[in-house]
Amino acid sequence: MIYYFYGSDWFKAGLEAGKLKTRLVDSGSRAVVLSPETETWLTDLKQFLQTGSIFSEKQVIIFSFEKLSASEKKELENLLNSFSSEERAVVVLEKKSKSGLKLKTAEKKEFILPGDKQIKAWERYLLDLAKDLGISLERYLINYFLSLETKEPAYFYQELLKLSLYQPGKKIGLKEFFSLNNQESRLNYFDWIKAVLKGDLAKSLVNIPADVGEGLGRLKSLINIFQILVASKDKNIQPNFQAAKKEFLDKTNPYWLRNLNHWAEGISSSEAALELKKLLELEAKIKTGRLTVQEGLKIFCLS
Predict the structure, then answer these.
(1) For the CA atoms of 22, 23, 25, 31, what is the dihedral angle to 10 degrees?
(2) Do 286 and 219 meet the contact criterion of CB atoms below 8 Å apart?
(3) CA–CA dist 211, 45 (Å, integer)
(4) Residue 242: CB partners within 8 Å, gap ≥ 6?
(5) pLDDT (tens digit per residue) in 206-242
(6) How much is the average pLDDT of 13-29?
(7) Do 222 and 242 form a contact (C-beta atoms < 8 A)?
């Protein structure tokens, strides 16, 4: 199978390709990444398409490019149009506004970036992005994003991802947005999460937020993170729970999942489950007034 992603919204095309790659790898495929910056890319691609690999029956190759010579483009089209396999997949990303490859059987998807003045289109873009991340946006926050002179997809994604981890499943407003971003004297959110997962006591303890609302948001996000870690690290999950696990992890951005697993590489599945249990117990104590949120976060970091 061939998947062909292109369009002016290169950032979103890359996200979609990342999700597809994660899904295929989770189903047992081995990923191979090729780039025209590598001199042997054409030879490597030809070998993959024609012979496959002795290491894995299922494979997926990721090939992204911005510009190819006319001869390279023609050879790439010929290779892809003659490719047919049930066990192997090819994901092609082209950084171009319009389709540049003539592919007969590929599953094509175009990603269009709205112009800066297309306010309604940008509003739909933001709402769809928020929905994909499991949150919703209040009108004042939408208006704030739309008021920015330059509308950058990577910036929107970074901010909404941060908010979705800070308050998963919630409706987010300007107050929450500025609360999370007003951290000049503290580590930013992602660095703090990394410090906690890596057990860096100095950074994680010193940078526990003093604001109660922000602290509760971080507690909620830690619970969500350890739920993700338990699901992704447990390789012995019972067959009747496999579908639920896949559905849960499919909602997690593959780049974020990769980062979490990298930062928590020293934490096993059973340890992640134990940490999740600790967090839920601390949350119950905080809700019943037996601990402040700052005390709860400190106890967790120390444990």
Answers:
(1) -60
(2) yes
(3) 53
(4) none
(5) 788 888 888 888 898 899 889 888 888 877 766 666 7
(6) 82
(7) no
**Cα–Cα dist 299/276, whole Å:** 13
- Torsion on CA atoms 29, 34, 39, 40, rounded to nearest 10: 20
**Distance from C-alpha of 60 to C-alpha of 5, rounded to nearest angstrom:** 15
8 Å CB contact between 91 and 61: yes
For residue 52, pLDDT over 60 is answered with no
CA distance linking residue 166 with residue 216, whole number of Å: 9
299 and 208 Cβ atoms separated by less than 8 Å: no
The position carrying tokens 């979490």 is: 260
C-alpha to C-alpha distance for 13 and 94, rounded to whole angstroms: 9
Name the pLDDT band for 143 (thresholds 50, 70, 90): very high
How far apart are the C-alpha atoms of 41 and 71, rounded to whole Å? 14
**Residue 117 or 17, more confident:** 17
- Of the candidates 213, 228, 230, the one whose C-alpha atom is nearest the C-alpha of residue 286 is 213
In the numeric block, which tokens belong to residue 7? 């369009």
pLDDT in tens, 83-98: 877 778 888 888 876 7
Alpha helices in the chain (DSSP H): 10-26, 41-51, 70-81, 119-132, 139-147, 153-166, 174-181, 189-198, 201-206, 212-233, 242-250, 254-263, 269-287, 293-302
Q: Which two tokens stand for residue 259?
A: 């980062």
